[in-house]
Design brief:
The chain has a single domain, classed as Porin, CATH 2.40.160. Helix content is 9%, strand content 54%. About 5% of the residues have low confidence. It has an eight-stranded antiparallel β-barrel. With 215 residues, it is mainly β. The chain has one helix and nine strands, in the order H-E-E-E-E-E-E-E-E-E. The longest helix is centred in the first third of the chain and has 19 residues.
Length: 215
């Protein structure tokens, strides 16, 4: 179902574009200290955190699947309040049964994506950045385990995902280089076949908790 070579060719083009943009400047809209009063166009940072996720349509419930969420972010600033941001992420989604050492049947699904979320951001110039937008994800690896055995059912999952997301970042410290980010994300397009006949397809839902360091 997936074509890793095609995907990485596209990602290389996106990375080259980000390099061109961020090479002009490493700082921007976020005020790093009370004496930082110069407006700059670009703002970049590094992201590291985790997802708590579930899949609607697998007859399970609960955000029990934990996974990585890491990558980079770049803001293009329109003025001191508004910016457009885009990220390049490695993010793990999926589902699992509720952790229980006495469980007889154990299910775990790990879906590895390379993802490019785009967002409109409002910066209140104090401590908070509010964000909402869309994202494109490319699935490049699936591991589905039933009682520890590989189910080997890759055809049940789709390579492309379009999603929506919203959340916010709290900036920490006097110079505001570090932020704590919370994000909710849900699929717009189906990511796989649904086991629930009332749903047309399976969709990802996840809560992301991340730290962001702005240069």
């Amino acid at each position: 179902m997936y074509k890793p070579t095609y995907f990485f060719e596209r990602m290389n083009r996106i990375l080259f574009f980000i390099f061109l943009c961020t090479s002009f400047s490493l700082q921007a809209q976020i005020k790093h200290g009370k004496d930082d009063d110069q407006f700059r166009i670009f703002d970049v940072g590094l992201i590291a955190g985790f997802n708590a996720s579930q899949v609607d349509g697998d007859n399970l419930a609960g955000f029990y699947k934990m996974g990585l969420n890491t990558g980079g972010v770049a803001h293009i600033n329109f003025n001191e309040d508004w910016s457009l941001s885009f990220e390049i992420l490695f993010t793990q989604k999926g589902a699992r049964t509720r952790p229980d050492p006495d469980a007889i049947n154990v299910y775990k699904l790990t879906m590895n994506y390379a993802e490019v979320p785009v967002a409109i951001n409002y910066n209140d110039q104090n401590r908070f950045i509010f964000s909402a937008g869309l994202g494109y994800g490319r699935l490049f690896k699936v591991v589905e385990l039933i009682n520890g055995l590989d189910n080997n059912n890759d055809d049940a999952f789709y390579s492309d995902e379009v999603s929506y997301h919203f959340g916010g970042t709290i900036l920490i410290g006097e110079e505001k280089h570090f932020g704590v980010n919370f994000r909710y994300q849900g699929s717009i397009t189906a990511v796989g076949q649904s086991l629930n006949p009332t749903l047309p397809g399976a969709i990802n839902r996840l809560l992301s908790f991340r730290g962001i360091y702005y240069f």
